[in-house]
Write a structure and sequence with these properties.
Bound molecules: adenosine-5'-diphosphate, magnesium ion
Helix content: 25-40%
Shape: globular
Structural class: alpha+beta
Distance between the termini: 42 Å
Radius of gyration: 21 Å
Strand order of the largest sheet: 6-8-5-9-7-10-11
Length: about 325
């Protein structure tokens, strides 16, 4: 780190680690108090924030580059579910005294790689010391045509319910890391798949345009499908019937579920999926699926919106499943 007259350690840290990522003109090379962003004409800005705390959202010894990628990606997932295209992000990072420069360098390497890959440059942030665990908070923003943001409210009786990708992998991956009694007879490759899905979400940004064009309601699944879907139904004033056999599971997750019925509960109620859950009017379902194929994102219809105000029913072997807790909650 080179020193210039009057620069504090904090200034040098920002210049060395974060300035290279501030590639957008409006970021002003992090030389100012704030950044500016000129939204394209006819566009709304969509704003979202997610904070990650060491020991809560990631393990303190996880690779720093992957922690950075997860911090950005969980926000990109929110933008995708709202139908917005990523435009940029702000980063607040609270560092314990023991964090080494090598940790920050690796963190910024991962962050820069994803910022470039997703077209979401760094616009600014804040850097502070903490006596507590390392905390990373990203505020991301995206754009979409004015008025086209997809809300949690808007699902209508008769709409088809879709999810992207596969459900439950991350929750099962977390169980593999934390619980001794979750062997499920998995191969090394299957274990690696589940562990990786916990570490590194795959936000479905390529689907954003299809979501805003066709979805009546949508959200990203971050705290567990059962609980998150109940939130969407509540906001929409509807209920739903899900066919659990249709919920897409990876081959590793299917193997875990076959070995241990409790794994199905964990997959449906556990967090960290970062998949899109959306409802699409039946007459548009075919077009939505075609757009998803064109975007190279797997979507699966898992059920139907129905009238009512009860939580969605997850039908399994002829009965509605009962869950102790539908989703993760900090409080
Ligand atoms: P101020 O005191 O005016 O808030 P700071 O000295 O905290 O400004 O930050 C100086 C510049 O560096 C600002 O442009 C700010 O956005 C940027 N910055 C500080 N920390 C970070 C960070 N962790 N990531 C990105 N930019 C940062
Ligand atoms: Mg200032």
């Amino acid at each position: 780190m080179s020193a210039a007259a009057g620069e504090s350690g904090e200034d040098r840290l920002i210049a060395h680690f974060f300035r290279p990522l501030a590639t957008a003109p409006g970021a002003l090379g992090l030389h100012d108090d704030a950044a500016f962003f000129s939204p394209p004409a006819g566009c709304d800005l969509v704003l979202t924030k997610d904070a990650l705390v060491a020991g809560v959202h990631f393990f303190a010894d996880d690779a720093p580059g992957v922690v950075a990628q997860k911090a950005l990606r969980v926000n990109l997932s929110d933008l995708a579910a709202k139908g917005a295209d990523p435009a940029g992000f702000l980063l607040a990072i609270a560092l314990p005294a023991e964090v080494a420069p090598a940790w920050l360098a690796a963190f910024c390497e991962g962050l820069g790689r994803d910022a470039a890959a997703y077209g979401c440059p760094l616009y600014g942030g804040d850097t502070v010391r903490t006596p507590g665990p390392l905390t990373v908070s990203v505020t991301a923003f995206g754009t979409l045509p004015t008025g086209s943001m997809v809300h949690r409210a808007g699902a209508q009786s008769g709409d088809a319910v879709f999810v992207t990708g596969t459900i439950g992998d991350a929750a099962l991956g977390l169980l593999l890391r934390t619980s001794a009694d979750a062997p499920w007879g998995l191969s090394a490759q299957e274990r690696a798949h589940l562990l990786d899905r916990y570490l590194l979400p795959q936000p479905r940004n390529p689907l954003a345009a299809a979501v805003r064009a066709h979805a009546s309601a949508g959200m990203d699944v971050s705290d567990g499908l059962v609980g998150d879907f109940a939130k969407l139904c509540r906001e929409s004033g509807v209920s739903a019937e899900i066919d659990v056999r249709l919920v897409p599971l990876s081959s590793a997750a299917r193997k875990a579920v076959a070995a241990d019925a409790a794994a199905l509960d964990a997959a449906l109620t556990g967090g960290d999926d970062y998949e899109i859950l959306c409802t699409v009017p039946a007459r548009r379902a075919e077009e939505f699926c075609a757009a998803a194929r064109a975007a190279n994102v797997t979507v699966t219809a898992i059920g139907t919106i129905v009238e009512g105000n009860g939580p969605p029913r997850f039908m399994h072997r002829g009965a509605a499943m009962q869950f102790a807790s539908g989703s993760f909650s900090h409080f």
